Please model this.
Amino acid sequence: MTPVVSAFAAKKGGGGKKRVAAAAKGFGAPPPTWEDVARKIKTRAPPNAETVNCPCASGSTYGNCCAPYHAGTKYPETPMAVLRSRYTAFTWRDIRYVIATTHPNCGDWREDKVSWVKELNKGGMFDNHDFVGLEPGLEELVGDDEGFITFTVKLRGHEGSDFEGQEQVIRERSQFLKGEDGSWTYATGELVLEL
Model:
């Protein structure tokens, strides 16, 4: 379990203790955790991901930009860090990170994370489009624990999808909330879709 996932699991009351207790009571092998299920899902990260330009358009290589967030060695310290690292996670199909950085107030958040992982994997939201561009706006902080960013994402439909070759532009004004541990998560957003 990565440190980011561990921190979020601990904050939500999850973790390994329940697994050990279930196994100790003689019910057989414990069911897989949501992290176990997510870890088995193939990502779209290239084999040389650490050395290529980060998809978030920061100008840095992935290894020097979003990789530490995805690996759990660094927490998103600003709303912009969450936005950029989540964009890269969507681009490269890192379902685990998307879930770990979603605030419980978000309409997408699910208590049953195993089902959530399977829903994201099956739903096609990662598979019907290429993420081809992120244009973040300015970060607007409201106090110490709330922030907003209006941004634009450009998508292109995959070959064989209903949107094949079509570019879509999504503008969203997103809310981010800071947790007690100092890390930021995505809370909600208002979308406007343009074809």
